[in-house]
């Protein structure tokens, strides 16, 4: 149970921040970001691509096939599968929560003035919580940090940048990105614990 202390702490802190952000920060920040100039939003449009899961799925599937059937490297195959499972699990959980929560995106705040939750929502406008880009960025950052700790700071800075662009572009509220970040981190660690339980080693001997 002790090994779950970190993920549980992250979930608790995230929950507090989500509530505070929902009550006090989300709407004012969305209005502020809506007024940002194109010199900021154009850069954000480039950075935000880093949170699109499809690119990572394409790369990791190729690597999985390569290490599994061509190069036949067991260690790198396990590492590839670790990232693939983490991406897949986080994406599925995120999609389920989006549907359950049915939160209106900032576009609905500006017109017609909706910002809360409309549970079991379907469609782009009511799938704001959590931010899928943030989930992808942080599940990858966590998985890569687990595999290559020396790059941890760099990948988490990149993940923060991606999550920030979702707020800047008014695609999500701040609380959506906090939830996405926490979900990504927790899922990656959960998959790591599963691999440990199955004795699927991810580090070199």
Annotation keywords:
205 residues, mainly alpha, Vanadium-containing Chloroperoxidase, domain 1, 72% helix
**Low-pLDDT segments, ≥5 res:** none
- Can you tell me the CATH architecture? Up-down Bundle
Structural class: mainly alpha
Report how far the terminal alpha carbons are from each other: 26 Å
CATH fold call:
Vanadium-containing Chloroperoxidase, domain 1
Our count of domains comes out at 1
Largest sheet: none
Give the CA-based shape.
globular
Number of strands: 0
CATH class: Mainly Alpha
Calculate the mean pLDDT score and round it: 96
Can you count the helices?
8
Rg to the nearest angstrom?
A: 18 Å
Proportion of residues in extended strands: under 5%
What is the string of SSEs from the N terminus onward? HHHHHHHH
- What is the helix content? over 70%
Overview of the molecule:
The mean pLDDT is 96. The protein has a single domain, classed as Vanadium-containing Chloroperoxidase, domain 1. Helix 2 packs across helix 7 (152-168). Helices cover 72% and strands 0% of the residues. It is mainly α. The protein has helices at residues 5-34, 38-47, 53-70, 74-101, 106-110, 132-147, 152-168, 174-197. It is globular and about 55 Å long. It starts with a helix and ends in an 8-residue tail after the last helix. The chain is built from 8 helices and no strands.
């Amino acid at each position: 149970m002790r090994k779950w202390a970190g993920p549980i702490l992250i979930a608790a802190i995230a929950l507090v921040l989500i509530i505070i952000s929902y009550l006090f920060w989300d709407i004012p920040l969305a209005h502020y970001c809506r007024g940002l100039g194109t010199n900021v939003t154009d850069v954000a449009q480039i950075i935000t691509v880093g949170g699109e899961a499809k690119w990572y799925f394409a790369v990791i599937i190729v690597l999985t096939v390569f290490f599994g059937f061509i190069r036949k490297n067991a260690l790198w195959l396990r590492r590839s599968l670790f990232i693939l499972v983490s991406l897949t699990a986080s994406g599925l959980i995120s999609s389920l929560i989006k549907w359950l929560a049915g939160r209106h995106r900032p576009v609905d705040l500006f017109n017609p003035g909706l910002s809360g939750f409309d549970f079991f929502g379907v469609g782009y406008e009511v799938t704001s919580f959590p931010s899928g880009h943030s989930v992808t960025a942080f599940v990858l950052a966590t998985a890569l940090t687990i595999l290559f700790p020396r790059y941890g700071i760099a990948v988490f800075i990149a993940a923060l940048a991606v999550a920030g662009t979702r707020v800047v572009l008014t695609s999500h509220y701040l609380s959506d990105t906090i939830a996405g970040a926490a979900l990504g981190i927790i899922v990656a660690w959960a998959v790591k614990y599963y691999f440990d339980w199955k004795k699927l080693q991810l580090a070199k001997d």
